[in-house]
């Protein structure tokens, strides 16, 4: 039986890359491909020694490092399930994720180990190990006591490789169960569609706890045996310094607006770039046009989701890259647009985009009801993105059927923030909205009323109360107090009205 384990596929490519540099960090030592393979094998033996078995979850909340990538690869190698968490999440948020994922191993920085160990939900884990931002930690110490020989565990295409949490419009976050087949098929498609070759050099400045940085960027580069210019985060000066060495760059729109905001960014900076990818949030047509004018390069905007990986892309080889559109369904992926009743709509009519293909996830972790709600009977997944498909198949995302804010590429679900604000004494009701933001695309704002007969808390008090409860990027950047929230005849808060009223809040 062939091994459908994604690691087996990546290992073949990494072996072929030999002693080529895999990761070149902005400071400190990098790793060659042969070293990545041997560190990964040692970490895999460490995981086994710690009692991690195939199918077990390994929950990881660590800063971006090369060791963290090797840990991800090692989790795949032993047939376990990688569960990365945004480093911005608070301990209160962690409590929920650990309770839901029930990992057998948790990896966090040493400074937060005691707080995590104190969570009752963490008791089900066999061990809590550490990993620091500089790539050192107990996992590496333990790994170096292990052999660098490890036989990759055989997985079937449908076996789970990763569990990625994505927030919900109602209630708590849901874990998307992502299989080896989902990841292998999407990566192979992208390598081919975007013309990756062994000579490519990728500037990697995305976080590695979400689909864009962890799957799209890493998998395409590893599968092609590319060198990655490894940035712990997006830093404008560091990006400007490394871009002249890169042939490929991937980022959220904020990366590109920040680059365009620098007078040092020019066609010369991009002299070797052949491919610039944007996604995770809408790229304004004006950003696409300004980038082309400054550099001569047409950004390739693509569209995807945690649950589906990449769905569409503007063409790389043949065809026009049209600003404000997300291109065509990728090979092997099918899309359609439907009305609320699920009936397919003709080309040109807006409706909710649905998708099917080997890239679409298996469902939500221990949540069959949500899974059922978001899939059609014929297997199409309902994205919640309002789209138009032109007669030639080109897709444009024109809105959202889901109440979602995307800030700097991070999803924020208003319901979660509203629940937290509503629980603050003195608050009557909160409505959380996204407003145009020059840096983050959308910025989070809250509009509140006072509880009857009470004085509402101030903006500073509200933000202060949310600090220990919600990740920074989810916290409102401003709070407005109103006598009443605007409502329609059904009593529903009219968020469109609020967005209009406060539209210019974050302007320039
Ligand atoms: C940081 N802050 C944010 C924020 N990121 N606030 C709102 N939205 C964000 N995205 C906060 C910081 O805590 C800080 O608060 C203040 O804003 C300014 O911080 P900064 O230093 O300017 O931010 P920075 O660290 O530079 O981060 C910005 C960023 C980062 C855009 C580089 O957010 C980022 O890397 N985003 C990428 C997200 C991503 O990978 N998404 C892919 C999801 S996958 P203070 O008050 O402390 O100063 C997906 C599927 C798909 O969607 O299709 O790809
Ligand atoms: P996530 O749940 O973090 O994977 O975010 C997925 C969501 O990001 C999608 O449902 C879209 O709403 C949005 N998204 C991703 N790429 C794009 C894009 N190129 N244009 C518009 N929205 C996008």
Write the layout of secondary structure elements.
Elements: H1 6-17, E1 21-25, E2 31-32, H2 33-49, E3 57-60, H3 66-77, E4 81-84, H4 91-101, E5 105-108, H5 110-117, E6 127-130, H6 138-143, E7 160-166, E8 174-179, H7 180-193, E9 201-204, H8 211-223, E10 227-230, H9 236-242, E11 248-251, H10 253-260, E12 275-278, H11 285-295, E13 300-305, E14 309-313, E15 328-329, E16 334-338, E17 351-356, E18 363-364, H12 368-374, E19 381-389, E20 395-400, E21 405-407, E22 410-412, H13 414-422, E23 427-437, E24 441-450, H14 459-466, E25 478-481, H15 495-501
Parallel strand pairs: 1-10, 3-4, 3-5, 5-6, 9-10, 9-11, 11-12, 12-13, 24-25
Antiparallel strand pairs: 1-2, 7-8, 8-18, 13-14, 14-15, 16-17, 17-19, 19-20, 21-22, 23-24
Helix pairs in contact: 1-2, 2-3, 7-8, 10-11
The structure holds malonyl-coenzyme A (MLC) and adenosine monophosphate.
Residues 206-207, 210-213, 233-234, 252, 254, 279-280, 304-306, 407-410, 440, 472-473 line the site of malonyl-coenzyme A.
List keywords for this structure.
508 residues; alpha/beta; Rossmann fold; GMP Synthetase, Chain A, domain 3; 3 domains; nine-stranded mixed β-sheet; four-stranded parallel β-sheet; 24% strand; binds malonyl-coenzyme A; binds adenosine monophosphate
